[in-house]
Structure formats: C-alpha cells, structure tokens
C-alpha cells in the first residue's frame, strides 16, 4: 500500500483525468481529430450534440458501476464481487428483450430495462430475506440462482425471436453506449451521492469487517446491509438502463483502486467513481474510433481489457494467501 | 465504591437446538471482576457470550447492561459499553494494521465524524501494548495467525468498552503472547471501572487471571462463584468428564489431566 501523500496525489490525478478524458472524447471521432475550440459550426454541433452527451453518459455509467461494485464487495464481503452477481442485469436484459420482441415501441428501452432490473432486485430481496438474521450466503445463492433463471429466459427468447432484433440485443447484452446520452446536469446528483457516501465511508469500513464485528461495533447490521443492497441495485439499475450490461468495470475498477488507495471507503469511493468514469469514457472513445465508421459495443473492449486484468489479480491474490 | 453490576444475567435460559446451555442463569458481573467460563467442547460458551453481547436472543430471562435490558439499547449504545473478541476473526480486505485497529473507535464517533489525533494515539497505543508496534503499516492480510489474533484484540482495546467479552483469547497464541493479552485485560479490569468475561480452555490461565468462574456442564446445569471456591479437582473432573489432578509444587497450584500410565512409561 502507498503512503498517505501518494494516495492524495493519486486522488488529485484522478480528479484531473476526468476532464482530460472528456476532452479527448469530445475531440476524437469518426470525422477525425479536432480541438473543440477550432471546430466550425458543423463540428461544434457534432461535439455538443453527439460526442459530449455520449461521453457524459459513459462517465456517469462508469462511475455508477464502480460505486455499485464497491458496495457489492462490502455486502458480500468479497473483493471479487461484481454489481451483476445477484442477477440484476439478467432481469434488465430479459425485460428489454421481451419489449423488443413484443414490439412495445411506446415504452422506451431504458425504462423497460430499469423495470426489469428492479423486479429482479425485489425478487431476490424477498426470497433471500427469510425470517432469520442477515446471511451473506443466502443472499449470494438466491442471487446467483435468480441470475441463472433470467439467463435461461434470455436464451429462450433469443432462440425463438426474430433474427432482426438479434444483433441489437447482442449489443445490449455486451453493453453499448451508442444510443446513450446524458445532460451535464445529471453530474450534480451523482457528485452529491459520491460525496455523501464518502462522508459516511467509515460505516462501510465497519461493515466490511463482517456482520458480527459490525454489530459489536455498533451498527444495526441487518438494516444497513439491506440499505446497501438496495442502493447498489438502484445504481446498477440506472447504469444498465443507460448502457446495457457493460462488464468488468464494476469489478476491476474497485479492485484496482483498493490496490492504489487502500480499502478505506473515504478514499476508495471517490477514487473508484473518478477512475470508473474516466476509464469508461476512454474505452467508449476507443470503441467508436478504433474501426470507424463501424462502432464496437464498449462492453467488448472493457471485457477484453478486464478479463486478463482480472486473471492477473486473481493470480496475485492466490499467491498472497 | 459502587457495587452495581456492569453486566447482569437474570434467569437466563439458553439453548442451542435441543441442547440446553444454561437454565435460569443468574450472574452479576461487577467492575473489577474477571470471569472465566469453563466447560467441555460444545457446552455453549460461545453461544452464551454471544447472548451476553446481544448478538442472539435468549430463550427466557434477560441480560442487563448497567441495569438496562440489552433489548432496550441501540447497538451503538451497547458498543460504547460492551465489546467482544470473537473466537475467529478473518480479514478479507487490504488495510493497514493501524487502520484496522482504528475501526474500534467507530461507536464513539458521530456518523459523519472523522478520527482525531487522540483516536490515532489510542490505536498506536493498543498496537504497542500487544507487541504490534512494528506492524502498524503492514497489511492485515499479511499477518500470521497469532498476529491476526492480537490485531483483533487491539481493535477491542481501541474500542475500550467497560465490559470485555473474550472468546478463547489465548487461541493461536504462544505462552508469552497469551500472557501479554491477559495481563492487559487484567490491568484494565483492575485500574478502571471495567470487567471481563472470557471463555477459556486453559484451567490454569483461568486460575491465574480470573476472580470468578462460571462452569457450564453441557446439560443446562451451571455453577458460578469465586475462583478459589470453584476450582477443585473433583468438580473439574465432573465438568470435563475425565480425571483432573491438582499438582502443587509449593509455589504454584496447577490442574492437570491425571496420567493413566497407558504406554507413556518411557
């Protein structure tokens, strides 16, 4: 682990990385590289109406997934947990797919997928709660089984559905930002959320010591854990409805940030939010320029970066034990 | 001199599945007392400690913390007066030993508060007195079993509750570190308005460090009283179901499992 000053420097660097990544995303595109302030009228419109809203959506999605990942890791007491592990993205995917197949064009896809995600959250919540005290194992098992159920439904619909919708559905399942856009106004509540959670980070530190220890240190753990579950689910649901199931951001980013700034959530949460946001902005910029004018779903890139990184971290963790 | 009990069990009945741990247990633990809970494996020492910490409900009766029933207190209020060293502690996230110990201040700080210099001093002090001063910046994931045990104990010392519940505090520790932990508990119990209750397997540690003993016989029966009265070979033999002997060399009285002379002649 790094010293306190080095950690502060890293946080500062991450704070600068966010506008830098936005600037790069705004100036790079299929029409080539231009500095935003040198653009002509058409270029300016591309920048303000296409690239910047999409970059902001990437920023928000990355930050949401990273925070949700941190929370899920505390909840399941496992540094390798991921925001989708409890089946939420499956619910979102199944609903979006059903919407596409049934031709429910009047319901926007983000709304459908958000509803699906929340339904999955409620199902897992009700089934896992039981009557006994908080149990991580029961929550994890319920979530994994519900996720498998959604997976089966999705496969069924893909097998029976028309081929025309297959491609757009596969893009959604990989995670794709090409239809996402977000106004800068939304960054205000997002920043406020990160700030509030950062200030309450000490409680998260206590909870990550486990339910028994957290009770002994004065937290009513049952209530706290369900709050965290619902908050993490809400954040993931928002991210998924914006961009589909982008993988590995919610897993790799918190893990990497733990290595850099430690597990104190008062540093971890802002670091993960900033890095997750900047990372997804850069990944999406790559996704739409690498094979321009063809666009890749950004989830392909995050997975291509994430899989080897994850295996490397896993290998490293196994050596430490 | 106040004699009000810090922790009190009133008619507590407790069971684990169909096995009774204690029936109608009455206990008054006052400041300056340290209690040792003795009993065979599976007699329910841990379950009783957990019930005293309010981590699990009792079948009948109630546990009171400074005269208030545990059920009427918020966890945060409990944590300011009562802390526990669980039998096992595992760390799954990287954090320095100092950070880990510092978490013990949690119940004493407001929900939005930050640790102050004074809190950091307490954490350093607790690490010092358990021989972990050289490891303050080391990650808690890289510690040996004994070091992890002492780190968990340091977190309890930083929490600094009036009632310390210790579940087999000597686990994983070599003799000198067992004494290091128990000396610190003894010091705190005798200097401040504090009390300790510890589940122990080592009868001789109990006779050295405990002023009172609670015996759980594993069938709901229990016996409680001053260590001098309770610790005797016949009662211990009944407790553990094997013959125990008192060995006295004139300086120290030690309880030992009686040698049966089966193949140990050499």
Please characterize this protein's 3D structure.
The complex is a heterodimer of chains A (321) and B (266). With 321 residues, chain A is mainly α. Chain A has a single domain, classed as ABC transporter involved in vitamin B12 uptake, BtuC (Orthogonal Bundle). Chain A is 75% helix and 0% strand. Chain A has 13 helices and no strands. Chain A is globular. The two termini of chain A are 17 Å apart. Chain B has 266 residues and is an alpha/beta fold. Chain B folds into 2 domains: 5-92 and 158-230, Rossmann fold (3-Layer(aba) Sandwich), CATH 3.40.50.300; 232-266, no CATH class. Helix content of chain B is 32%, strand content 27%. In chain B, a hairpin with a 2-residue loop joins strand 4 (60-65) and strand 5. In chain B, helix 4 (117-129) crosses helix 5 (145-159). Chain B is globular. The chains are: A mainly alpha (321), B alpha/beta (266). Chains A and B meet through helix 8 and helix 9 of A and helix 2 of B.
At the fold tier of CATH, the topology name of the largest domain in chain B is: Rossmann fold
Mean pLDDT of chain B: 92
- Average pLDDT confidence of chain A is 86
Give me the number of helical elements of chain A: 13
Distance between the termini of chain B: 56 Å
Q: What separation lies between the terminal Cα atoms of chain A?
A: 17 Å
What name goes with the CATH superfamily of chain A? ABC transporter involved in vitamin B12 uptake, BtuC
Please tag this protein with its features.
heterodimer; A: 321 residues; mainly alpha; ABC transporter involved in vitamin B12 uptake, BtuC; 13 helices; 0% strand; B: 266 residues; alpha/beta; Rossmann fold; 2 domains; six-stranded mixed beta sheet; four-stranded antiparallel beta sheet; 32% helix
């Amino acid at each position: 682990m790094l010293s306190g000053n080095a950690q502060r420097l890293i946080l500062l660097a991450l704070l600068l990385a966010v506008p830098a990544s936005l600037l790069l995303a705004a100036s790079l595109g299929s029409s080539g590289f231009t500095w935003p302030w040198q653009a002509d009228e058409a270029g300016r419109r591309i920048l303000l109406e296409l690239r910047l809203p999409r970059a902001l959506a990437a920023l928000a999605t990355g930050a949401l997934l990273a925070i949700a990942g941190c929370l899920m890791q505390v909840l399941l007491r496992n540094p390798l947990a991921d925001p989708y592990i409890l089946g939420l993205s499956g619910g979102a995917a199944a609903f979006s797919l059903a919407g596409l197949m049934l031709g429910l064009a009047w319901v926007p896809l983000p709304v459908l997928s958000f509803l699906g995600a929340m339904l999955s959250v409620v199902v897992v919540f009700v089934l896992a709660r039981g009557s006994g005290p908080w149990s991580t194992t029961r929550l994890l098992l319920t979530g994994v089984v519900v996720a498998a159920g959604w997976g089966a439904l999705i496969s069924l619909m893909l097998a029976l559905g028309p081929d025309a919708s297959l491609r757009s559905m596969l893009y959604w399942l990989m995670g794709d930002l090409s239809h996402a856009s977000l106004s800068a106004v939304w960054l205000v509540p997002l920043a406020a959320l990160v700030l509030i959670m950062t200030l309450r980070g000490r409680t998260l530190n206590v909870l990550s010591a486990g339910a028994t220890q957290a009770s002994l240190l004065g937290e009513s753990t049952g209530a706290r854990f369900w709050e965290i579950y619902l908050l993490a689910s809400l954040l993931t649901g928002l991210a998924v409805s914006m961009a589909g199931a982008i993988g590995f951001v919610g897993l790799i980013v918190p893990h990497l940030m733990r290595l850099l700034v430690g597990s104190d959530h008062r540093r971890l949460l802002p670091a993960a939010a900033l890095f997750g946001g900047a990372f997804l902005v850069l990944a999406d910029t790559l996704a739409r320029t690498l094979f321009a004018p063809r666009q890749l779903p950004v989830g392909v890139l995050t997975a291509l970066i994430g899989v080897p990184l994850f295996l490397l971290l896993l290998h490293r963790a196994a050596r430490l034990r | 001199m106040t004699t009000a009990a810090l922790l009190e069990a009133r008619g507590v009945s407790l069971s684990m599945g169909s096995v009774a741990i204690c029936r109608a247990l009455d206990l008054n633990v006052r400041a300056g007392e340290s209690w040792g809970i003795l009993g065979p494996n599976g007699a329910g020492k841990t379950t009783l400690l957990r019930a005293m910490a309010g981590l699990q409900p009792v079948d009948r009766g109630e546990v009171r913390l400074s005269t208030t029933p545990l059920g009427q207190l918020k966890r945060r209020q409990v944590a300011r007066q009562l802390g526990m060293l669980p039998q096992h502690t595992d760390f799954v996230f990287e954090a320095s030993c100092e950070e880990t110990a510092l978490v013990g201040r949690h119940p004493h700080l407001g929900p939005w508060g930050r640790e102050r210099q004074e809190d950091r001093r307490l954490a350093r002090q607790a690490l010092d007195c358990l021989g972990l001063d050289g490891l303050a910046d080391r990650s808690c994931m890289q510690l040996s079993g004994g070091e992890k045990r002492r780190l968990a104990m340091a977190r309890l010392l930083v929490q600094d509750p009036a009632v310390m519940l210790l579940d087999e505090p000597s686990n994983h520790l070599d003799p000198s570190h067992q004494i290091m932990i128990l000396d610190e508990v003894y010091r705190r119990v005798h200097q401040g308005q504090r009390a300790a209750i510890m589940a122990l397997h080592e009868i001789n540690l109990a006779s050295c460090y405990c002023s009172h003993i609670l015996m759980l016989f594993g069938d709901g029966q229990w016996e409680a009283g001053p260590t001098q009265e309770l610790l005797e070979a016949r009662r211990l033999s009944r407790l553990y179901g094997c013959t125990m002997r008192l060995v006295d060399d004139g300086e120290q009285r030690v309880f030992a499992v009686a040698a049966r002379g089966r193949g140990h002649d050499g």
